[in-house]
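User: I'm writing a tutorial on reading structure tokens. Could you give me a worked example: one chain, its sequence, then its tokens, then a sentence or two explaining what the tokens reveal?
Assistant: Sure. Here is the example chain.
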Amino acid sequence: MSGISLQFHCIDNPVNFIEKTMKTGVYLFFFLLVYFFFVFFLRSYLLWKRTGINPLTFNTSDDAHSYNGKVFAFISLLEFVVVLIYAFKNEWYQYLLPFWYLEHDYLKYIGWGLLVLSLILVWVAQSQMANSWRVGIDENNKTELITNGLFSISRNPVFLGIMIANIGLFFIIPNAFTLLIISLSTTSINTQIRLEEDFLKSSHGEVYRDYLKRVRRWL
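And here are its predicted structure tokens:
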């Protein structure tokens, strides 16, 4: 018997359950589109229009930085696939190995709160970075070291916001693949942070080393 059929034994009205699930999935899918539009596309476009610089710095080479860029792209694609299945192919959702015992409304409310918090946090942090914002490491254009605003309490508020979003996604649709997204993104983000720290030490020297002593990596 399928996982979704087992779940129906605990539900008074399976039809209402499916309709509610699909509605949540559609909202989640459109929120994901909005999130990626504002955080990546629009932010990149605005910076390019102001400066003529492409903030997307990952390339096709085989070094650690570019490889991590491919991991980021895979995680983003996986998020869209998982949400698409949840929203529009609910009969396939059982193959994502859902954790039915975590399917609670209060966890979904927390999850939505974390997604909204993440979008606000990332957008504000990117705004404070202004022309210094990049996706990855820019070795061709010198950027200003930003240490004020959110960056005075966290060295990586953008990455922190992305981690919060991944946890929020798991709370809304808890399954093996959203848990995998958290695991992969945690590893990839921590790798990227260390690559960027090494780069910033070499490009900003003692100023950045002093910043490392004053502000924590996360909070």
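What the tokens reveal: The domain at 3-214 is CATH 1.20.120.1630 (Four Helix Bundle (Hemerythrin (Met), subunit A)). The CA atoms of residues 132 and 139 lie 12 Å apart.
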